[in-house]
């Protein structure tokens, strides 16, 4: 696999204040673990970003060189990285020194390849259940990624760890029955139940206006008036 160069600087001070000052200067505090006591180091932030760009951090093999020319060259991998939860900037790096003739355990990212039949023909949803597997191999055989062909997957189909294509010199440590990727059925669309039809308003019955019947005294007055006119 490709080996990248990374320049390192010995770091004298430790603590939060020192780390804050280094970050303001565009540097990242780091620690190199290996034979003997851990070494406090400083890395250039831009150098770290170049190393991890488009790669899984622990799959990158590094040649470490001290900026003062002393200490020789060390071979290492990135064991862990910490990021600021707000700015997402790298704030700390742990490096692990390795020997090229001794197997190590690292995490390798898993990527789907192709378009699943269940997605294309059945409107299913591709779900990556396992995005990284743990492997054991020599440092020079660390794969950058493991690809899994999902093109034949239909809804309900599952690819497990045991079905991943084997790589020469690489042993996958995860449970063979662990699910890696599947195609789920499409999410059911929620259909709003039609509102109950409101009862039709009954047309109001027309008001019947009847002629008021004259009172008896009124009838008598009109009769008398007619008699006087005769």
Could you walk me through the main structural features you see in this protein, from its secondary elements to its overall organization?
With 230 residues, the chain is α+β, with helices and mostly antiparallel strands. The chain folds into two domains: 1-98, Ribosomal Protein L25, Chain P; 100-188, RNA Polymerase Alpha Subunit, Chain A, domain 2 (Beta Complex). It is 15% helix and 35% strand. The chain is built from four helices and 13 strands. The chain has helices spanning 16-24, 45-52, 117-120, 216-229; strands spanning 3-10, 27-33, 39-44, 61-66, 73-83, 90-97, 104-113, 125-128, 132-137, 146-149, 158-160, 171-172, 179-184. Strands 1-3-2-6-5-4 form a six-stranded mixed β-barrel. A four-stranded mixed sheet has the order 10-7-9-12, with no helix packed on it. A hairpin with a 5-residue loop joins strand 2 (27-33) and strand 3 (39-44). The longest helix has 14 residues, at 216-229. The mean pLDDT is 83.
């Amino acid at each position: 696999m490709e080996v990248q160069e990374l320049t390192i600087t010995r770091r004298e001070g430790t603590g939060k204040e020192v780390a804050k000052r280094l970050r303001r200067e565009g540097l990242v505090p780091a620690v190199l673990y290996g034979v003997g006591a851990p070494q406090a180091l400083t890395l250039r932030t831009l150098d770290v970003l170049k190393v991890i760009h488009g790669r899984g951090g622990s799959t990158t093999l590094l040649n470490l060189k001290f900026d003062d020319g002393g200490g020789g060259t060390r071979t290492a991998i990135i064991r862990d990285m910490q990021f600021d939860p707000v700015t997402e900037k790298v704030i700390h790096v742990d490096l692990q020194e390795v020997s090229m003739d001794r197997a190590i355990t690292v995490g390798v990212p898993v990527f789907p390849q192709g378009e699943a039949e269940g997605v294309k023909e059945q409107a299913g949803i591709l779900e990556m259940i396992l995005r990284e597997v743990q492997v054991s191999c020599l440092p020079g055989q660390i794969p950058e990624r493991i690809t899994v062909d999902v093109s034949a997957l239909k809804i309900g189909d599952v690819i497990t760890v045991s079905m991943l294509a084997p790589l020469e010199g690489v042993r996958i440590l995860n449970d063979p029955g662990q699910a890696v990727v599947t195609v789920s059925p499409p999410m059911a669309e929620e259909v709003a139940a039609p509102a109950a039809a409101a009862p039709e308003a009954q047309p109001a019955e027309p008001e019947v206006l009847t002629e008021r019947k004259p009172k008896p005294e009124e009838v008598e007055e009109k009769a008398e008036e007619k008699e006087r006119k005769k």
